[in-house]
Amino acid sequence: MMVETRSPAQQQALRIVDCDVHVTPAEGVRSLLPYMTKAWQTQFESFARLKREVKRHPFRYPNPSGAINRWDAVPPSGGEPGSDLAFLQQDLMAKWQISEALLVPVEWVNTWTDPRLAAAYLSALNDYFVQEWLPRDDRLRYTLVVSPHDPVSAAAEIRKHAGSKGVAAVFLPLLQQMMGHTWFNPVYEAAQEADLPVVNHPSGGEGTYQGAPTLAGGVPQTYAERNVSNFALGMANTVNLVFEGVFERYPKLRVVFVEWGFTWLPSTLWRMDKRWRELRTEIPWVKRPPSEYVFEHIRYTTQPVDGPDNEEEFLPFLKAMRAERTLLFSTDYPHWDNDDPFKVFTALPQPLKQRIYAGNALETFGERF
Known about the structure:
alpha/beta; 8-stranded parallel sheet; 40% helix; 9% strand
C-alpha cells in the first residue's frame, strides 16, 4: 500500500474526479463467457485455457520492472490489479477520496485480425461491467469499448448501451487509420446521438503489431524510448480530427485524449492556426481557426504529468492550452506510473486545480456524471 499523504484540509477542499481507472474482468475471458452465445463461448474457451498456461504476455516492449501495474495493487483475492471492485474501492476510491471514477478497460482488439471476434468479445466485456460492476457503486462510470475494425457494429454497441445507467463515454482504440477518417463516421454519429464523448487511450499495441498505429520515425529500440515517443500519436490525431472536419460534420461531438500527454498541445495549437491561415484553401471545410475547435470539442487528461520540477514554470503551458477548460484529472490506476492526486499540481492556484480535478470532467461528461 502507498502511504497516505494528504491532510484533512486537503480532503475537505478538493473534489476529485478520476478520468482514467483501468479495470479487467475478475477471471479474464472466463468472466465473459456467460455474456456470449454458445458458438462464441466455444471459440473463446480456447483462449481461456491458453491464458492459464501463458504467464507473460509477449510484449514487444516489456517494462523493465516486469509489469505494467503496481505490485501493491494486486488484490487480496489474487486476481489482476483492477479486477476486484471491493479492493479498488479501498485502494483507490477511499484512499484518494475519488468522488467519481471513469472505468477504462484497455483491450488489444486493435491488433486482432478478425473483426467479428473483436466485436463479440467487446460486447461481452461491456455487458459484464455494465451488469456486474456499475450497480454496485454509484460513483463508477463506464467507458464502452467498441471495435475500430467494424464501425457499424461499434455504432450498434453504442446504441445498445446509450440508456444504460453509468455508461458515460465510448472508447475507440486506434488503428493505422487516423481518427479523422470518414471510416469512423458511424461511431461519431452514434456517439453524438447518445451524447457520449469519444475517449481515445493507448492500447499497448501502438508501434508493435501490424494494423496498429505506427510510431513516428520508425521502430524504437527500448520501452523507455517508445514510452516517450508514443505521445506523438495523440498530437497527430488531434490535428487530424480538426483538419479532416470531424467537428463540422458532428458539431456536438466531444473527444477526450486519455494518457497521451498534454504539454505538447500549446505549440501544436500555434502551428495549426498558422498553417490554417496560410493553407486554408486546401481545407476549406475547416471554417474557424483550429484552436477554436480544440477548445470547444477536445479534452486531455493529466497523467502522466510531464513538466518542470518547478511547478510555477508549468503555469504558462497550462494558460496557453486553457487548462481551466481542456484538462481533466486522471490517476491511471493501477499502472506503475500512476499519479497520486496530492503529489501533483501542488503549486497550482486552488480555483484552477478544482477545475482540473473535477469541474472540467463534470462539464465534459455532463449529466452522465
